[in-house]
Amino acid sequence: MSLVERLEGKRMVVVAGSGGVGKTTTAAALALALAAQGRRVAVVTIDPAKRLAQALGLEELGNEPRRVDPERLAGHGLEVRGELWAMMLDAKRTFDDLIARLAPDERTRDEVLTNRIYQELSGAVAGSQEFTAVAKLYELQREDRFDVLVLDTPPSRNALDFLDAPERLTSFFEGRALRVLLAPTGLAARVAAAGTGAALSVLRRLTGVDLMTDLGGFFRALSGLIDGFRERARAVGALLADPATAFLVVSTPEREPVAEAIFFAGKLRDAALPFGGLIVNRVHSLPEPAPQPAAVAAALTGELGERTAAAVADNLAAHAVLAARDASAIEHLCTTLGVDDPIVLPNLDAEVHDIAALAAIALRL
Amino acid sequence: MLRRRLLVVTGKGGTGKSTVAAALGLVAARQGRRTIVAEVAQRTDVPGSLGAVAGEPFAETPLREGLWHISIDPADALREYLHDQLPSDTLARMLGGSRSFALLASATPGLAELLSMGKVWELAQAQRRTTGAQPYDLVILDAPATGHGLATLAAPSAFARAAAVGPVARQGRLIDDWLTDPRQTGVLAVTRAEALPVAETIALAGDLRAQLSLELEAVVVNGLSAQRFEREEEARLRTALAAREAGDGDAARESGATRESGDPVAFALERALADLAVARGERRQVERLRRAVSLTPLRLPFAVKEESGEADLGVLADALSRTLARSEEQA
Predict the structure, then answer these.
(1) Measured between CB atoms, which of A50, A125, A257 is closest to B199?
(2) How far is CA A250 from the centre of its chain?
(3) What fold is seen in the domain A3-163+236-284+347-362?
(4) How many other β-carbons are positioned within 10 Å of the β-carbon of residue A306?
(5) How far is CA A218 from the centre of its chain?
(6) What domains, with CATH codes, occur in chain B?
(7) Residues A295, B264: C-beta atoms closer than 8 Å
(8) What percent of chain B has pLDDT over 90?
(9) Can you say whether residue B212 is alpha, beta or left, with left for phi > 0 and alpha for psi between -120 and 50 degrees?
(10) Which residue is closest to B167 within chain A, CA to CA?
(11) B248-290: per-residue pLDDT in tens?
């Protein structure tokens, strides 16, 4: 069964895998394949290859999906009956928007947005990009403008951050510790009011008063948003676990991505999240029966001379080594993940950065 | 390059950054420098590429003669920092064991990155703060992939700005000054000779300069394919392929072609032409990179048998040694 058929009825597809395995390309090609089936599809991507973005007609970061011009899609062997929309997420702006939406009033909003801690450091928080991406997806899903959303996950090597982000935020906001921090007489307040406890004075000495005051302000301002955040994080968690969601695990046959894919699939299982399939990119293969380098050299020596014929044979032998490595990597992946029908995509000798190349991949999905 | 105190290895995911960091560690250790490779954010990729098992988190684990490894966990770094900064152990334990404090720390944006960088700094000090710890000649930081890597390096200065006064600000500034001192620290980017990783490396060079006033010291182009053919051979390969395809099939059948498998010789010729094109594209990307970052990229060959770990890393380390020696001669 093709991947597109397997994703019948899914409303959200999350494409995950370690960096450099072709997630963005796979997500875009899949979105195109689904659009070809007549569905309204939005692909949400984070910092994709510039040329791929240009191919999709995305010149800049934005917070709203834009429709890819149907004329761009025409004439690549794929009849696109549906609609393809694409969006390149601006994480910082999405986070700002989210805070604006969740803040009970303008003052709280401005307090967070103008807080020095938020401004200086919000970009550096691990997991915030991940959370922002799912939060945006949740919003798009609620608006119900699309039949399917395809998310290209952030280029984080630790895919766990992505799965954990909603839960981590929820448990943080529900935690006793935060309430202690945020209570009118809580840690933050006491710190801000130059607390007297031994630990607090040490804390102040350690961190500097300004930092603690700003931190206190940050957490206090955030407290106005907590209910909204908690609600949002919970809803996002539920969306990820919904049977209409599918996680696709993308890998290449190389050692590290394979290890990451296995690790990630295990985490999906532990978290009872819906696994939707395995895609192995950049696979080298040989025809059956395998061509023999020595025979190839012999056949070409007369025509090309010994040196060139030997180089062709060498090149073939190196390719055969890769094909063998790839076959065993795929077998290892399939056995470990319990998958019997991986989508295997060939190693392309050129990078994918136009619609024609995307369409060629889409046809294989 | 290996004479610095700290070498930061960064690059786009999937470029073999950790493998290069491990290979650099081997090279430095072979040169007699007491070296430690540090990973952050719960990664332990380096021991695996040496065929070794990772030690306990935060433990300085020996991998080879003269080569150690550590995976820096921010929670441990925080405990160590408190222990170091506070006048009494009781106080350090109290604060370190406090859940509110742990949560406050984990919720404070960028603190994990600051603490990790603080530990990297501590590892590189001639006088170690950790009791009984030996100093290292060289710390190699296998930094997170480009974007997060930059945020990690920028955390000390961001904190110094945000805190303004007090020990954290002082510490942040201290680490930042050291980190941005080209006599102490070198930054190396690992990339592949493909459009996207090269673009990201060029952007990284600009961001390093703009945000940290750091210059890239070297770029390593990893996984370059073998250049088996001369330029003039391409036309002959093409002619040979066209002749096979136009032929009556006798030659193909002679070479063992069947309907299913096709002509094995034509397949080999197609592969040769495809790889020629790949190699040409790679040369173009290396050239583009060289011009954009004004550095001669260090080239590392593609290692087919990745599984074998140690042996391959040795080969990579040899290649790296030669490349480094060459680039130093040129300089």
Answers:
(1) A50
(2) 10
(3) Rossmann fold (3.40.50)
(4) 11
(5) 28
(6) 6-227+295-330 (3.40.50.300)
(7) yes
(8) 31
(9) alpha
(10) A206
(11) 677 777 777 776 668 889 999 999 999 899 999 999 999 999 9
